[in-house]
Specification:
This protein is of the alpha+beta class. Helix content is about 35%, strand content about 10%. Among the domains are: about 120 residues, Alpha-Beta Plaits, CATH 3.30.70.330; about 160 residues, Orthogonal Bundle (Poly(a)-polymerase, middle domain). This is Poly(A) RNA polymerase, mitochondrial.
Length: about 625
């Protein structure tokens, strides 16, 4: 009998006490086993250094893994003993996906010792006769009920679950509790980064999706390679982020052919318009995804966009995936951001904090529009770290110089694709020596860098200057875009071209407000129970979106109030002494001017009572013209 493995029982995560703060700040070394209480410690299991090493390590993990749907995490012991017959299980991770009403779906990711052992486990699977469908073999399986176990004590698995419910992001109340219990804003930024960044299981699941894409097309295109890019691989991804993939149907197209071979493949003629060809290929791939790949649903083809993409949802991975083709710049940009994050340990925590702040105040939005994107915010953080008196990051031109002076330590070829204007980026990014070529002399803490970031952009001249990460300085704006950030790889493009004037002014207002919040809500200034630091910066009061129109709908001070006499029993209260002195000076200067005008002017003939006789119609001096009452005087 077959069972649909869903359950309504949710595993409740134990709340983390304040004693775990130090454990979060100091992650464990080595591949130590972690209990569910230690789940906020998110770190990569692979000891990686370069971008290519990270990608190859993650691909190898996916090649040795299968994903099995189970009834709950309690099925792990039985699943472990069953799958141990195919090989050694190196690691296992549990997570769940929210159901539509029939309960939650539970999954366990198993990593074997080799790809051959994972293939043996996958090949042992069978197709269901009670649930007919397209008979496509894949790494996505489900564990059906077997015979009743014998009444004997079953041995415990050699390896316990590394994570239970491992894909659920931290709740807002729990995050605020951790941030409030921190000792300083510096610790708050570090905690925020470590408990919200994409964890090891999240990266594994994303590379399973990459493997599924490649294996589905490699039967017809043996050299097809899916290149993940964006936040999933550049080190700045948070829990629940989307996966961006570039599909290259022939990864060896740039290699010269063998001149000695006399056999040449017949090929299909392509459309002379490259854009039309990409659109037709993506449309066909979208059909393959929708009709044949297990777990893929909600396929949307957005082919008329500037960069044609196919969007779909993977129900087993609970993941949104964007698929495109021939967009090599996305891969190089991801590698550049990964390089920046590896050059200094403060880059990623600071970027996470700025992104979280922008989300809390309404600067960013998940849907495309005229607001600032996370990518533009990341560019702003990188430039800020470049322009400091003691730079935390070097400019891109400086990196190219350092790469030229540091020859590669190994001459092993790297399987990558080079095309067009991005070839110069490939030249220095593929050099492993670049990762150790720069060390910053800046010793500022994360708290100091965060405050300086807000202060810097509160005074930045967006109306005249453009930001260039290649030079590490500003240049005159090439056009009238409200915000101009030069694309590091394609320098003729503006990264923030979509941002309008209102959003640019809103950004400047919010950075000024952030400076005031950090100064006014320090840990020493408030009560122990009051929000402070990042909690006040991300608090619910900041969720209300501020717009520039708010500052023009009502005057902060009427001009008439400056000159009116204030009764002695009700004096005007000023919070800022400087404003009080300025208003008093304006009153004195204005009264002096009025007194001079009254003493020096003699407009009309005065009568004995000191009044001025009204003129109805009198001839002007030297002329015979009469001036009427309603005549406008210039």
């Amino acid at each position: 009998m077959l069972h649909i493995y869903r359950t309504t029982a949710r595993s409740k995560r134990a709340l983390i006490g304040y004693g775990h703060i130090r454990q979060i700040l100091v992650p464990p070394t080595g591949r130590q086993q972690r209990s569910p209480l230690c789940w906020p410690i998110r770190h990569c299991s692979a000891n990686v250094r370069t971008f290519d090493t990270m990608l190859s390590t993650r691909r190898a993990e996916a090649r040795k893994s299968i994903l099995v749907q189970v009834s709950s995490e309690r099925s792990y012991n039985e699943l472990y003993h069953y799958c141990s017959q195919f090989g050694t299980i190196q690691s296992s991770h549990h997570y769940r996906v929210d159901g539509d009403g029939d309960g939650d779906c539970h999954y366990i990711l198993l990593e074997f010792g080799s790809s051959a052992e994972a293939d043996a486990a996958m090949q042992s699977g069978v197709f269901s006769t009670e649930r007919p469908g397209v008979r496509a073999r894949s790494i996505f399986l489900w564990f059906r009920t077997g015979p009743k176990p014998k009444l004997i004590a079953q041995e415990e698995p050699n390896r316990s679950l590394a994570l239970i419910d491992g894909t659920q992001p931290i709740q807002e109340a729990e995050l605020n509790g951790l941030l409030t219990a921190a000792e300083s804003i510096d610790d708050q930024v570090t905690i925020l980064h470590r408990v919200t960044k994409l964890n090891d299981l999240g990266k594994r699941l994303r590379f399973l999706a990459v493997r599924q894409l490649e294996s589905s097309l490699q039967g017809m295109f043996p050299q097809a390679v899916a290149h993940p890019f964006g936040s999933s691989v550049n080190g700045y991804g948070r829990m629940g982020c989307d996966l961006d993939v570039i599909m290259d149907l022939d990864s060896r197209s740039g290699e010269p052919p063998d001149r000695n071979s006399r056999l040449v493949y017949h090929t299909k003629a392509t459309n002379p318009n490259e854009r039309t060809q990409v659109q037709r290929q993506l449309e066909s791939i979208g059909d393959v995804l929708q009709l044949f790949l297990p777990g893929v649903n909600s396929v949307r083809r957005i082919l008329k966009a500037r960069v044609p993409i196919v969007k779909y949802h993977h129900e087993h991975l609970d993941l949104e995936i964007d698929l495109t083709m021939n967009n090599t710049a996305g891969v190089y940009m991801s590698e550049l951001l990964y390089l920046f994050g590896q050059l200094d340990a403060r880059v990623r925590p600071l970027t996470f904090c700025v992104r979280r702040w922008a989300q809390s105040v309404g600067l960013t939005n998940q849907t495309p529009g005229y607001w600032i994107t996370n990518f533009s915010l990341t560019m702003l953080v990188m430039y800020f770290l470049q322009q400091l008196a003691r730079p935390v990051l070097p400019s891109i031109n400086r990196l190219i110089q350092l790469s030229a002076s540091c020859p590669p330590q190994s001459s092993a070829p790297v399987t990558r694709f080079v095309e067009g204007e991005t070839e110069w980026a490939y030249t220095f990014l593929k050099n492993p020596s670049i990762y150790g070529s720069f060390r910053s002399e800046n010793e500022a803490t994360l708290e100091q860098l965060l405050v300086q970031f807000f202060e810097f952009y509160s005074q930045f001249d967006f109306s005249q200057r453009a930001i260039s990460l290649n030079l590490g300085s500003t240049i005159l704006k090439p056009d009238h875009s409200p915000m101009y950030i030069v694309n590091p790889l394609e320098t003729v493009l503006n990264v923030s071209k979509n941002v309008n004037l209102e959003e640019t002014e809103l950004f400047r207002m919010q950075v000024r407000n952030a400076v005031w919040l950090l100064e006014a809500h320090g840990k020493e200034t408030g009560a122990p129970t009051e929000p402070w630091g990042l909690v006040s910066l991300f608090g619910p009061k900041q969720q209300e979106r501020i717009t520039p129109q708010m500052f023009f709908t009502k005057r902060l001070l009427n001009v008439k109030d400056i000159f009116d006499e204030v009764p002695a029993d009700a004096p005007t209260q000023y919070r800022n002494p400087a404003v009080k002195s300025q208003v008093a000076a304006i009153q004195r200067a204005t009264k002096a001017e009025l007194h001079k005008l009254g003493a020096g002017g003699g407009g009309g003939s005065s009568n004995r009572t000191g009044g001025v006789e009204p003129r109805t119609s009198s001839p002007m001096e030297g002329t015979g013209v009469k001036l009427k009452r309603n005549t406008k005087r210039r």
